[in-house]
């Protein structure tokens, strides 16, 4: 038994031969944009599980955490988990929570953003997680317009997950899925 995904069309004797018709399954599936938001900064575990699952299936995954520091990592020292998961943090001494970033911290986050953009545009990753992106936008460290341009220009097969509280409306509008984590206390 032989299976073919590209089969030539059969033509009547009077017809001009046309090009080979591709099977509809050969078209790449467009990547999605997912937003995970919560008023709390404690829901990253759910996103990490998804990233590890994708990496475990043999796909390359990039996690970029924009506001987590303290380990002086930077783009030259990514954490690697297995063969498929790369985790980046800025080369800063602390985790940022307020709009009090020093010039050096701002430069490190800008460098991380540009590195992430360039790496994704190469088409190497199947999934990209941009952690606490909404906070980085609110703190003026990454521009909302730059994120929108990135999402529009990324390779079409790349899935992107955006996290953080109070995600800008413009990013919610381009999202294929929005998940809001809430705590529900039962008395």
In the sheet with the most strands, the strands line up as: 5-6-4-7-8-3-9
Helix residue percentage: 25-40%
* Largest sheet features: 7 strands, mixed
| CATH class annotation | Alpha Beta
Which CATH-level-2 architecture?
Answer: 3-Layer(aba) Sandwich
Categorize the overall geometry: globular
What is the count of DSSP helices, taking H or I runs of 4+ residues?
5
Rounded to the nearest angstrom, the radius of gyration is: 21 Å
CATH topology term: Rossmann fold
Tell me the total number of β-strands: 9
Q: Which residue ranges are poorly predicted, with pLDDT under 50 across at least 5 consecutive positions? A: 1-12
Count of the domains: 1
The CATH homologous superfamily name equals P-loop containing nucleotide triphosphate hydrolases
Which class of secondary structure composition applies to the elements?
A: alpha/beta
Strand portion = 15-25%
What is the element string, with H for helices and E for strands? EEEHEEEHEHHEHE
Calculate the terminal CA-CA distance, rounded to whole Å. 63 Å
Tags for this model:
seven-stranded mixed sheet, single chain, alpha/beta, Rossmann fold, disordered N terminus, 187 residues, 29% helix
How would you sum up this structure, described in words?
The protein is α/β, with parallel strands linked by helices. It has a single domain (30-180), classed as Rossmann fold, CATH 3.40.50.300. Helix content is 29%, strand content 19%. The protein is built from 5 helices and 9 strands, in the order E-E-E-H-E-E-E-H-E-H-H-E-H-E. The strands form 2 sheets. A 7-stranded mixed sheet has the order 5-6-4-7-8-3-9, sandwiched between helices. It is globular and about 40 Å long. Residues 1-12 have low confidence and may be disordered.
């Amino acid at each position: 038994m032989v299976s073919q995904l590209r089969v030539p069309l059969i033509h009547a004797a009077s017809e001009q031969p046309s090009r080979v018709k591709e099977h509809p399954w050969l078209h790449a599936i467009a990547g999605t944009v997912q937003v995970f938001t919560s008023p709390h900064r404690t829901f990253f575990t759910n996103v990490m599980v998804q990233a590890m699952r994708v990496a475990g299936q043999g796909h390359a995954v990039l996690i970029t955490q924009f506001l987590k520091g303290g380990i002086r990592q930077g783009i030259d020292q990514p954490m690697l988990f297995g063969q498929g998961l790369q985790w980046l943090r800025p080369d800063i001494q602390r985790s940022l929570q307020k709009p009090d970033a020093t010039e050096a911290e701002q430069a490190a986050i800008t460098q991380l953003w540009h590195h992430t953009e360039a790496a994704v545009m190469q088409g190497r990753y199947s999934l990209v997680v941009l952690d606490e992106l909404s906070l980085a936008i609110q703190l003026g460290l990454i521009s909302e317009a730059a994120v929108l341009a990135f999402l529009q220009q990324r390779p079409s097969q790349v899935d992107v997950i955006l996290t953080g509280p109070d995600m800008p409306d413009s990013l919610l509008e381009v999202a294929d899925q929005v998940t809001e984590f809430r705590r529900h206390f039962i008395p």
